[in-house]
Write a structure and sequence with these properties.
By secondary structure, the chain is α+β, with helices and mostly antiparallel strands. It has a single domain, classed as Arc Repressor Mutant, subunit A, CATH 1.10.10.10. Strands 1-3-2 form a three-stranded antiparallel β-sheet. Strand 2 and strand 3 form a beta hairpin. The longest helix has 19 residues. The two termini are 17 Å apart. Pfam families: HTH_34. InterPro entries: WH-like_DNA-bd_sf, WH_DNA-bd_dom, WH_DNA-bd_sf. This is Winged helix DNA-binding domain-containing protein.
């Protein structure tokens, strides 16, 4: 695969540092709470909320709200589509990291 083809596979939605952080965290667990992601990524509520909204609108992340007693909790997890997109993104990065290999003519 040529380098330009590998770069074409980079999903700009995932490529944002905040959204990539959310995807990476969620790819390593079954689900995570909003608060745990906020603390792990060191993001403000508004930055995290924006990132999650973009990922949810694209169908990559599912958001579920529930109550524990009287306290509301927001759980997040990657959808099948989100997992597929994330691992495809990582595969593109792997190809890019392998670097350029000129063909001899």
């Amino acid at each position: 695969m040529k380098m330009n083809e590998a770069f074409e596979g980079i999903d700009p939605l995932i490529h944002s540092p905040n959204r990539l952080g959310v995807m990476a965290c969620l790819a390593s667990v079954d689900s995570a709470t909003y608060q745990s992601l906020k603390e792990e990524l060191g993001l403000s509520y508004s930055s995290l909320s924006k990132s999650i909204s973009s990922l949810e609108e694209s169908g990559m992340v599912n958001v579920s709200k529930r109550f524990i007693g009287k306290k509301a909790t927001t759980d997040l997890f990657l959808t099948r589509q989100g997992k597929k997109a994330y691992f495809s993104y990582l595969a593109c990065l792997d190809r890019i990291v392998m670097g350029f290999s000129p063909s001899e003519k």
